[in-house]
Amino acid sequence: MNNDLNQAPTYVKLAVDLIMVLEQSDVSPEEVLQALEIVKTDYTNKLAAEQP
User: Fold this and answer.
1) Number of CB atoms found within 10 A of residue 24's CB
2) Rounded to two decimals, what is the model's pTM?
3) SS3 state of residue 51
4) pLDDT in tens, 10-49
5) Which of 29, 30, 31, 47 is buried deepest, with most CB atoms within 10 A?
6) CA distance 37 to 39
């Protein structure tokens, strides 16, 4: 990672890592977006479950 990325917030670093992994996979952009919707729903539910 370059110095700018090292200074970036954790969520930006995670996004860059995920993009790199997804670009290396042999999956269509449509399938990636479908998978990301599932991930987003899962983490949205986890966040809601943490709320009092």
Assistant:
1) 8
2) 0.78
3) coil
4) 999 999 999 999 999 999 999 999 999 999 999 999 999 9
5) 31
6) 5
